[in-house]
């Protein structure tokens, strides 16, 4: 868009506000402010506009007398120095002197966008013309410079024209160089596209090889997992067979131990029964002898009979205690049999619990193998991810190479803005460098292709090794199956031996049961004999009781008779004592009578005189 405000008589405040508003504008491309008598404020606003605006390409300031305001024009030149977007500037009839021309020349030395500058009908003079001529040596973009009506000498004008012509030639050379650079860039882009296509084809082939290798690895992993499962099954079968073998051996050992214990118990029971039978026999003989002695003694003495009766009672109590002891022993034997059966049941339960524990351990081992397999799969996936990251890094390196090539192209473009000869030399160098880099890149890609082929060969070798490992695993599985068959046969043999031993044990147990039954029959017979003896003893006791009752009655009769005799004896003794007293009285009476008779006779008197 173009904004034409020429010959509008704008005030300084209006110009300042207008230019401040255009600082942030992006649509106005051409601005015409000729004939508005701009002063210092307008020049400063124009400098600010040139520093901040990036869209204005053409600026017309004819008939404004900007050169009269040195500070404002210097501010305007500073804005022009900082601007890199303005291409056409019209400063005709602005009363610019040689100082303003010098500041304008200093601004043009750093400006890289201005192509046309119109300074006609000013007061530049010789010094201003030389300053502008000197700035053209460093400014390569200015193509047209109008200096008519400025009191500039002809030689300076010719030098300015030559410099402008040189700039125009340089611009033509640069345009040709740009065209050549564009052509070369297109060729480079086409080469890049071809290389990218080749690289993408190569990446596709690599991806296909990766997919094939992944499929082969998956198939090998599946095969290995199947073989591992088969091996695990074989191991589980072997472990179960081993556990069964151990259980059978333990059962055999327990049965042998039980048979040995039962034999010892039977021997002990036999010895005890023999001892008890001998004791019973001796006791029976003693009882018979004592019974005979008692019968003889009962006939002779009642006191001996009572003592023998007490002895018989004590012996009967001892016999009853012995019978109770034998019954307790039989009960203990039965209790031991029940305990042994309970122990067998408990051991069977413990064996089942151990079997459950072994099953849980086997499940745990299976879970551990599964976790190891998952870890192996994770490791393989990590390896694949690492290879993918390496490929990604390689792609990034290729991208970096591409970016470096683009930077080199930008450097080539920057160098092409210089002289034509340097541009041609730089182009030759760039071509040679590009060719060398392309050759190097091709060699590098060929090297990478060779490395990828080597990696593919290595992957194929790994697959072959895995196949060999699978074959070895299959052979090991066959060997393990043969070994498992041998173990099964061994287990069958052991099972048969166990069955034979079980049959022998059953026969021995039956024999022991028969012997126990026989011994129990003998004990029952002895018990019946003891019952008969007890009955005989009871009959003898009844006879003894009858005899004792008879003897007691006889004793009572005798005692009654003895008491009567004693009473009679006491009566007789009383009579005898009375008779003795009477005899004593009679004797005393006789003595007294005799003494009286003697005293009354003459013999008695003679005796008394003597």
SSE pattern, N- to C-terminal: EHEHEHEHEHEHHHH
- What's the shape? elongated
Widest sheet: strand ordering: 1-2-3-4-5-6
Total number of beta strands: 6
User: Treating each run of at least 4 consecutive H or I residues as one helix, how many helices?
Assistant: 9
Please state the CA-atom Rg, rounded to the nearest Å. 75 Å
The helix-and-strand class reads: mainly alpha
Describe the overall structure.
It comes from Helopsaltes ochotensis (Middendorff's grasshopper-warbler). Its main location: cytoplasm. This is LRC45 protein. The protein has helices spanning 12-22, 40-52, 70-82, 98-110, 125-138, 154-300, 302-416, 420-600, 602-609, and strands at residues 2-4, 30-32, 58-60, 88-90, 116-118, 144-146. Strands 1-2-3-4-5-6 form a six-stranded parallel beta sheet. The protein has 610 residues and is mostly helical. The chain contains nine helices and six strands; from the N terminus they run βαβαβαβαβαβαααα. It has two domains: 2-152, Leucine-rich repeat, LRR (right-handed beta-alpha superhelix); 201-556.
Topology:
Layout: E1 2-4, H1 12-22, E2 30-32, H2 40-52, E3 58-60, H3 70-82, E4 88-90, H4 98-110, E5 116-118, H5 125-138, E6 144-146, H6 154-300, H7 302-416, H8 420-600, H9 602-609
Parallel strand pairs: 1-2, 2-3, 3-4, 4-5, 5-6
Helix pairs in contact: 1-2, 2-3, 3-4, 4-5, 5-6, 6-7, 6-8, 7-8, 8-9
Question: What can be said about this structure in brief?
Answer:
The protein is mostly helical and 610 residues long.
Features of this protein?
single chain; 610 residues; mainly alpha; Leucine-rich repeat, LRR (right-handed beta-alpha superhelix); 2 domains; six-stranded parallel sheet; 6 strands; 84% helix; elongated; disordered C terminus
